[in-house]
Amino acid sequence: MVAATKFQSSYHYGFIDEATKKEIRRKTLKAVCIPGYQVPYSSPEMPISRGWGTGGLHLTLTLIGKSDVLKIIDQGSDASVNACHLRRFVQMMADCAVTFDTAQATIIQSRHRVPEEILTNRQILVLQVPQPEVLRGVERFEARTRQMHGEADYSKIWVSLYEAYVRFGATMRGSGYPIKVNRRYITTPSPIPRWDTPNLSMAHCLYLFGAGREKRIQAIPPHTPVEPLEFEDVKFRVEEFAGIRCSVSGESRAFMDEIFNGEGHRRHVINDSNFLDKLTSGERPPQRVFVNS
Amino acid sequence: MATLLKVANLHKEFTLFIPGAKKIRALENVSFDMEEGEILGLTGKSGAGKSTLMKCIYRTYLPTSGSIRMHLANGGVSNIAHAPEHEVLSIRRTEMHYCSQFLHAIPRVPALEVVSEGLRVRGYSREDASGQAQKCFERLALPEELWNAYPSTFSGGEQQRVNISRAVLSRPRLLLVDEPTASLDLKTKDAVIDILLELKASGTSILLITHDAHTLNRLCDRCLHLENGALRNAVPVRNTEKV
Amino acid sequence: MNHQEDQNWLLRVRGLTKIFGQPCDSSIAQTGPEHATNICPETGAVVAIADIGFDLYPGEVLGIVGESGSGKSTLVQLLHFDQEASGGRVLFQEVDQGRTNILALSNQRKRFIKNHLMGMVYQNPRDGLNFNFTAGGNIAEKLLMAGTFHVGKIRGRAGYLLTQTEVPVLRMDETPASFSGGMQQRVQISKAVANNPPLVFFDEVTSGLDVSVQAKVLDLIRKLQQESGISMIVVSHDLGVIRMLTDRTIVLKHGRMVEHGLTDQILQDPQHAYTQLLVSSLL
Ligand SMILES: Nc1ncnc2c1ncn2[C@@H]1O[C@H](COP(=O)(O)OP(=O)(O)OP(=O)(O)O)[C@@H](O)[C@H]1O
Ligand SMILES: Nc1ncnc2c1ncn2[C@@H]1O[C@H](COP(=O)(O)OP(=O)(O)OP(=O)(O)O)[C@@H](O)[C@H]1O
Ligand SMILES: [Mg+2]
Ligand SMILES: [Mg+2]
């Protein structure tokens, strides 16, 4: 039990009751066993609205123990309002240590980014996912998309890539580039930038994806091959930051934010705040950078 | 000489369900042999059953009973009266050609194409096939401006020449020809006869239906006579008229 | 001929049956041409086809004729896995050397067979084309599913096919929704044959088209057949189409095969009363 002094009430450890935790853990195990497959789960109520990271919280709260070190980031930043609130909530409910340091964390919950620093086999990255269904754009009906996954019938997603290329000259889509996990399921597990997509493949850490509103859990276990969909002659490309340097660190090899000031000037800053902090303090964390061919 | 075709006890009866069930006996107990390399004539009055017999051999008509055994190039024997459809199709593609009384050309295909198609299927290049077809048209005096027109608009005699060109160029082992010279003038008639004789010389056996005594005399080694669907005597004609 | 050649079939169909609704033990016995219905008098089940059997050989074009409701579309849709059969076996030489009943395979394997080894042209272009995709995208779909993942090659092939079918290549990147019926049909044919499958089904491809467009579509199918030697099954109630395109023909009535034979024999010497009626209404 966890005491909440403000309201003089107490909660289950990790907020969620044990029976539900058990169910979510079982679904998580199933997701790990079938990389890239969307496992439906109960998605219990949370003290935040669905769509604000409930799926991530479900996973974090069922995984965490008192000895864990938690890091929560929102779009690369540890200090954003959302990240701060979620961190305080989990810390209260789980009585665990928290950190900004990517290397120190055992569980990292994130929205829209994979940290630049290479994660290790001691770490789990939990991603909050708004829409886990890669096929939703080409097929409205859930019953059909499930059948399509079941039969590996991915023609429509491929045609949509072809059509995007014909129309726009690139298979480029903003974030959430479709990937094939373990040579079987096609998915777009989280709206991460293309920059992060190659880091999902053959990683040392476990990636978990929770979509609270859509009630789905997915996983990419360590050392799983993950391939972005690409044509033989039109290859997958990450965002180009050619000739661009971070205005704070002077570094060029990281995912950048574009910042405009009042006079219409534009500058770039590295998006991953902890990575930037380490660079400015003279550290050079290990990084895996994909180079466009 | 080896036997090419052995027809035995062939019966053909048409059952017409409309109007009312009616039976027409068209062939009755027809038996004969055909040798490899011979030209066999088939005569008889109109309605005697000549075309019916020929179409039975080609399997356009399904024989009611009896057998039609063809000795194939690969050494096998096929009973065309009962052979599976795909087997008959394969024989038609490679060893037997039917040149009907009327041209059944595919619409919207030019005359040259109609004729060279068969050659191209058998592996000739487009130019080669087209060249052979042109040569044949020249010999049969088919006007050059018709070569690239659609045969469905041709006159009877012109269609017939397209039909014969197609038959000759397909170089079958057995050629079935129904009235090849019916609507042709004397000169063209002789051109057709010459071409058929050349075909015979190159090894093709020919079963020929004709009402025309001149054609019959110049071409046939032997002759069968049909009367009311039954075979009368087989007459060797070559001996009767020799030039 | 010899036994060897008899094993050369591409597709072998035996006892193929499809019943809609609840059949009873006597549904099949109480339907068919001799009962002049395909509806079971006891349960109302529709015996769309029953006990159909035939072999299709490589390079052959097989015609299926019959009146409306005789089961023609059902037959090809069963072979193309669009519907689930109630009974019967289908062997396909390209799958396990013809040793496996392809109707009993998993959906995933059926899809693979359909994508790689078959093509289908539906009567209604909306069934065969996705109008949310462009004409080129529709052709790309077939090529992608058959394993071509090269945009340049896909566009080259799509452009070639559209030229062959006389659809202006300039319109490749438009959706077929804005095309005429004949053009849609030709895009559909391009899609069906895009990856040169060994077997293609055509279901009433020319009905609903005006005569000059019909002629173009028929010429196109003939040309494709001659050039690539694809085996085809052509469904039509129009004997003119059957005469022009097919080598062999099956006649269906109330879901049963009443006659089969070489197409010229079916047309000139039909054996069954029903076929004679069909043929006499042609002339
Ligand atoms: N498809 C058919 N259906 C019904 N009866 C037919 C059919 N074909 C031929 N017959 C009949 O068979 C008989 C023989 O006809 P066939 O065409 O063989 O005569 P033929 O000897 O070729 O005559 P011709 O010299 O006039 O061409 C005729 O009585 C004809 O009516
Ligand atoms: N989904 C279905 N449910 C019930 N009955 C069906 C269904 N689909 C087809 N049928 C019935 O099965 C029979 C055969 O239909 P099918 O569509 O195969 O006919 P068809 O020969 O293609 O006819 P048409 O020439 O009109 O296209 C018909 O009696 C039809 O009513
Ligand atoms: Mg005659
Ligand atoms: Mg139909």
Topology:
The complex is a heterotrimer of chains A (293), B (243) and C (283).
Chain A: E1 2-4, E2 9-11, H1 18-33, E3 39-40, H2 54-63, E4 69-74, H3 81-94, E5 97-98, E6 107-111, E7 124-128, H4 142-150, H5 155-168, E8 179-181, E9 185-187, E10 206-211, E11 216-220, E12 226-228, E13 256-260, E14 266-270, H6 273-280
Chain B: E1 3-16, E2 22-35, E3 39-44, H1 50-58, E4 65-71, E5 77-79, H2 85-94, E6 96-99, H3 111-121, H4 126-139, H5 156-169, E7 174-178, H6 186-201, E8 205-209, H7 213-219, E9 222-227, E10 230-235
Parallel strand pairs in B: 3-8, 3-9, 6-7, 7-8
Antiparallel strand pairs in B: 1-2, 1-4, 4-5, 9-10
Chain C: H1 3-6, E1 11-20, E2 46-56, E3 61-66, H2 72-79, E4 87-92, H3 107-117, E5 118-121, H4 125-128, H5 135-145, H6 151-164, H7 181-193, E6 199-203, H8 211-228, E7 231-235, H9 239-245, E8 248-253, E9 256-262, H10 263-268, H11 273-282
Parallel strand pairs in C: 3-7, 3-8, 5-6, 6-7
Antiparallel strand pairs in C: 1-2, 1-4, 8-9
Bound molecules: adenosine-5'-triphosphate (ATP) (2 copies) and magnesium ion (MG) (2 copies).
Summed up:
Chain B is of the alpha/beta class and 243 residues long.
Tell me what the structure shows.
In chain A, helix 3 (81-94) links the parallel strand 4 and strand 5 (97-98). In chain A, 24% of the residues lie in helices and 19% in strands. By secondary structure, chain A is of the alpha/beta class. Chain B is an alpha/beta fold and 243 residues long. Chain B is built from seven helices and ten strands. The two termini of chain B are 25 Å apart. Chain C contains eleven helices and nine strands. In chain C, helix 7 runs parallel beside helix 8 (211-228). Chain C has 283 residues and is an alpha/beta fold. The mean pLDDT of chain C is 92. Chain C has a six-stranded mixed β-sheet, with helices on both faces. The complex binds adenosine-5'-triphosphate (2 copies) and magnesium ion (MG) (2 copies). One magnesium ion is lined by residues 72-73, 123, 203-204 of chain C.
